[in-house]
Amino acid sequence: MKKQNIISIVIIAVLVIIAGVLIYNNRYLSSLRSEASDFTVYDTATITKLFFADKSGNEVLLQRKPTGWTVNNEYPANQNLINEMLYTLTRMRIKRPVSIKKTDNVVTQMSTTNTKVEVYQILPRINLFNKIRLFYHETRSKVFYVGGVTQDNVGTYVLKEGGDKVYVAHLPMFNGSISARFSALPLDWRDHLIFNSNMNDIASVKLEINEDPDNGFIINEINRAQYSMTRLNGQPVDFSENKVLTLMNSFQDVRFEAFLNDIDPARRDSIINSPFQERLTLTTKDGISRSVTTFKLIANSDIYDYSQKDIDIFEEKLKDPDHKYALLSEGNEFVLIQDFIFGKLLKPADYYSKDYREEIPQIYYKELETVESH
Question: Domain boundaries in the chain?
């Protein structure tokens, strides 16, 4: 056989192999894209409800309303988390199917630890080639189960309801598991917003200070961006307009750090029945009032079981300087707040006085000599 013919045969064989690989890969990728449609929602604007339930008995219903998303049809949802979930549903992709050898073990794990996901959408009953869509209605479009993380910690096991094949799902450009995003705990989805008022919508702000009542105050709007300020004993305050305007402009997005619903009920009652520290009340022009009542937080008191005598003697040393307990008037919710957020809202009347001068700590040479150099 001529050398030229041998070369031609080799080239043809290589081309056939390449074509076979390309056809296989194309079919494999097409299959993955088809299977991904069981878990991915490409148009999240059509989603009306999301229902999550885990094996511990936790359930949560997230529902789209004209005023925003709600949790269990009762509480406002955290919109940032909702947006993250919608992004996850539209960007989630199938990385690979789980091998037959590992499927039984993964299914066994998922039978004890998983979150059931139900997606409800407004979809047409008739859809011709994605061109003609008729008779829109709400329907449960997808039901699947989200399991644990893969061994490399960058994938998450998912299983379609009624299916027998487990897949590894992931978010492109995200190096981690997405299982934690499908939480069935209602508190994980609730909004932490306390105040959300524009300065022009506020009628009054009142601050009560339990241990220093004369330093409490009330600010009332007179005209647009014009205010009066008096102490709670009726004495007018010659206030700094800039400081008051800064305060009134600080209520647009005030949030708490965490819910404390899991605290022991007896402990909760003991705290809210103790003397409060501050009570801040905001009233809007439509007559709605919301208040936050704060209480001191003893650092790690539940862990170390400090006695009341210890707390009375070492209160200042034991007190957490960065956090406080708080009781919200709306819903009687018991929460944790940060001093970083509320410190600027709870300043006394003296702070707003024009002749107020903030003390600046002085450092003397002798003190500097005791500081070790590094």
Answer: 37-189, 193-352
